[in-house]
Write a structure and sequence with these properties.
Residues 36-195 form the AAA+ ATPase domain. This is MoxR family ATPase. The structure is a single chain. The protein has 2 domains: 8-192, Rossmann fold, CATH 3.40.50; 197-295. Helices cover 50% and strands 13% of the residues. The protein has helices at residues 8-17, 24-36, 50-61, 76-79, 85-94, 100-103, 113-118, 138-150, 181-185, 197-207, 213-226, 237-249, 257-267, 271-277, 280-295, and strands at 40-44, 65-69, 81-83, 109-111, 127-131, 152-155, 159-162, 168-173, 188-192. The strands form 3 sheets. It has a 5-stranded parallel sheet. A hairpin with a 3-residue loop joins strand 6 and strand 7 (159-162). Adenosine-5'-triphosphate binds at residues 19-22, 46-52, 172, 174, 203, 207, 237-238, 241.
Length: 300
């Protein structure tokens, strides 16, 4: 286990050392969340590094990552714990005298993510990722409150289990619905926006180091131009990375309209969006992008 970062700068450089390039604001929020031992609540555009930050934090702090992927219908049994009825039945059959106290002991407890995260028998407090909370039903948030505010879970048959040291908690949401204020109040909040051109270029340099500089600039500028269009789903950083890899696989050195049209399926996942950008529109956009780059002094 590694110590928490000492400052915002330290947070930023330690994240960057693991190829995660945060905005200054995100580095500040991460630093404070760790310092104040509060959960980090990240909402934002898809594919902008919300899930990834939890993975990188686990690596940075030398802690295991425990991930709870939320989904419709997720309940306490799926998220925290369940009694192992089959084993309990077996125990009853094998020994006539098994008492309730024996049956409702830790032996028969199936620990799910939330309980694992606060389990006192864990040698190191983990990083707990509660991913895509907006996919879970609203009542699930009520379950979460006890965990998030006191880092404890009460099991009626067993008592209250409390984390000896709080886990680092990261919650994410894609904002398909609003998360309840009571949950948000316990967290530090940050909206993860699309990166600036410079930051996206820095991300690309780290994630796809083989991409020629000129191509990387065109890729990032083109994607920034796409994000200004009225598309059903805008490409995220994940798409920037994927597209760069695809273009490299095709031995591209610079963008051209044909190349763009051939690879749009990496960037855009809706036919309407693809139709809007392919063909002559692609060359028009590319020309605009080149003008912008030239104006910024990036091209001859
Ligand atoms: N700031 C960043 N620095 C480095 N890599 C990044 C950054 N932001 C995003 N990425 C990369 O983009 C990809 C997508 O990130 P991630 O899966 O965390 O997005 P997300 O916000 O969780 O998306 P979704 O909302 O779709 O779940 C990952 O491969 C990640 O490495
Ligand atoms: Mg995610």
């Amino acid at each position: 286990m590694t110590a928490f970062p000492l400052s915002i700068d330290d947070t930023q450089s330690r994240l960057e050392a693991l190829d995660y390039v945060p905005s200054r604001e995100l580095a500040a929020t991460v630093f404070l969340a760790l310092k104040l031992q509060r959960p980090l609540f990240l909402e934002g555009e898809p594919g902008t590094g919300k899930t990834e930050i939890a993975k990188v934090l686990a690596q940075m702090l030398g802690r295991p990552l425990i991930r709870l992927q939320c989904y419709e219908g997720l309940d306490m049994a799926g998220a925290a714990y369940e009694w192992n009825y089959a084993r309990q039945m077996m125990a009853i059959k094998l020994s006539e005298g098994a008492s309730d106290a024996d049956l409702f002991s830790e032996r028969y407890l199936i620990k799910r993510a939330l309980l694992q995260a606060i389990d006192p028998s864990q040698p190191v407090p983990p990083v707990l990722l509660i991913d895509e909370l907006d996919r879970a039903d609203e009542p699930f948030e009520a379950f979460l409150l006890e965990v998030l505010s006191d880092f404890q879970i009460t099991i009626p048959e067993l008592g209250t289990i409390r984390a000896p040291a709080p886990p680092v908690v990261v919650l994410t949401s894609n904002r398909t619905r609003e998360i309840h204020d009571a949950v948000k109040r316990r967290c530090l909040y940050h909206w993860v926006d699309f990166p600036t051109l410079q930051r996206e270029l820095a991300i690309l340099e780290r994630r796809v180091p083989d991409a020629p500089k000129a191509l990387a600039r065109e890729i990032v500028a083109f994607i920034h131009r796409l994000r200004q269009l009225d598309l059903y789903k805008l490409p995220g950083v994940a798409e920037t990375i994927e597209w760069s890899r695809a273009l490299l696989a095709l031995d591209a050195v610079v963008l051209d309209p044909e190349l763009i049209s051939q690879t749009l399926g990496v960037l855009l996942k809706y036919q309407d969006d693809i139709a809007k950008v392919s063909g002559s529109e692609a060359s028009k956009l590319l020309n605009e992008v080149r003008d912008t780059l030239r104006a910024a002094g990036f091209m001859g």
